[in-house]
Amino acid sequence: MISLLASVNAEAGSVRLPKLFGDCMVLQRDVELEIWGWADPGTIVTVRFNGSYHEAVTDESGRWTTALPPQKAGGPYLMEINETVIRDVLVGDVWLCSGQSNQETPIHRLTEKFPEINVSDNHMIRHFKVPTQNTPEQLQEDLAGNACWHSGVASQVMNWTALAYFYAQEAYAHTGVPQGMIVSSLGGSEIESWISRNSFRTVPMVHVPDGSDAAESSPVTDVGEGRWHVKDLDDSDWEIMNMPGTWKENGLDVRGTVWMRKDFDVPEVMAGRHAKLSMGTLVHNDRVYVNGVFVGSTGYEYPPRRYHIPAGVLVKGRNTITVRLDAPAGNGEFIKDKPYKIVGDAAEIDLTGEWKYKVGADLSGRRSDISYKTVPKKVSGLYNGMIYPLRKYRFSGVIWYQGESNAGSHCEYAGLVSSLISEWRALLSSPKMPFLLVQLPNFMQKQPQPCESSWAGIREAQLEAFKTIPYTSLAVTYDVGEWNDIHPLEKKSVAQRLFLGARKLVYMQDVEASGPVYESMEINGGKIIITFTHAGKGLRSKDGQPLRHFAIAGADGRFVWADAVIKGKKVVVSSPEVASPVAVRYAWSDNPSDANLVGENGLLASPFRTDSW
Fold first, then answer.
1. Residue 460 in contact with residue 452, Cβ under 8 Å?
2. Quick check: helix, strand or coil at residue 257?
3. Whose CA is closest to 388, among 167, 137, 40?
4. Where are the beta strands (DSSP E) in 335-414?
5. Whether residue 214 has pLDDT greater than 70
6. For the chain, how far is it from start to end, CA to CA, in angstroms?
7. Which residue, among 164, 169, 80, 92, has the nearest Cα to 127 in the 3D structure?
8. In this structure, are residues 96 and 395 in contact, taking their beta carbons and an 8 Å threshold?
9. How many Cβ atoms are within 10 Å of 529's Cβ, its own excluded?
């Protein structure tokens, strides 16, 4: 009787599953699958799936694990784990997507550019966004939060991240196999956060404010707060600036808060009706009012400002829009080449041109010469909290999109990428795990002359990783970025280029997944001859025009734009300004979007330099 009672109590123990397990999940096909969790010690756990069952007994610490044999692609299936039922389970290909903000750009930002998102109808692709869990001091056994899986149908697709969506669509279209996208990323994160402490011989150091220069005793009051947003304000003494543009371009050099107002006329067809407001991208933080009614705000620089003007706010004739723009670092901005307009069903209103402005809070006279101290960098927190808990799950490969936050330390980046890849492969029990890398896109203003570039340095490190680490691919993307947006919207092309790498590394198709890659150089008189790998049957110009963005230098290290001519799989580079050249650079800038060397397959040549200056 005592033995029977003990058995009953053991079986009655409740089972807790990893946060990743739930309705709509996708399991990796064709590999043994580990299913695990926690329960009271001695609990018998039964996992029933696809016509078979498997048992485990929890150990003294309450952990249990069992394995399912390799499964063919298919579903939906039911998984039962004791009393817990998980429905709509698919078996297919699972991808771990990680990095920083371009990896986790929310899909709702892309619906105007890609309206097909709104009518998405693919239940065979699934998405799971790992909640942020940054724990530098401790490994975590499970994920944080209560995230869940979502499918690619219209009613759920707004829960997706953009790159994962387009990649899943591309992969499913080619394979017909269910796709599961697990996105473990964090905007602004540095690569050091994604690597365990064991990978660092010495902990990196970083400069931070030492605290002794904290904000001065009394806060600065915004004199416009609660007053200057109203419609019928007397702003006759306010000054004028032209937008889009920067404060400094308009003669205003302050750090702080500036209130900006513009009157506009509304036609009768828009009066009283709901409308959409596009306020481009603003630097840095904004609150926006229309006719005194608050319509939206954004707390940092990068997202597009898309707000709704409720029905009843707009009136026929004169209306007013007010923007409270806060730029504590100075030089607030309406970023150029972005839309600034109100859009209704029957008309739209242009908001560019003259705006009135008045300073609400000026920090310019306060201390900005903050002193710093050197402290250990907080490494490994995202590895501990957002990668380590995934270690028993199985994946087809990893999609890594990161580097913007490391642009200031590009010299170390290649080694850090190598450490991350080797460590994740060991953690995920897959020594040949494919890594699909995204090279940084073009960003910032074009420069008229060759110059140094920290973003080019990161691209070089990413190329080095691709060239030296087996089972990696590199998506070159310097033609699909935006000079005025660190989060470019053209994620579809990035996904297509990434999937070329998957076709080669995962699906073993005979495709060339790379554009031309610099191999060697030869100096011949006043010319330098560059040889490339991954050139197919030969090189060509992407647009049929002469090659652009090649630069050449002599021993003095001064680069000038060069003439570049294709000769088969080589490019001959020269300039009448450099009689004895020693080095060549290609697409070496923050924004080389006009660089046009491609291979036979039309893929861009990766930026490179032959020097190490």
1. no
2. strand
3. 137
4. 340-343, 348-350, 353-362, 372-376, 397-401
5. no
6. 81
7. 164
8. yes
9. 16
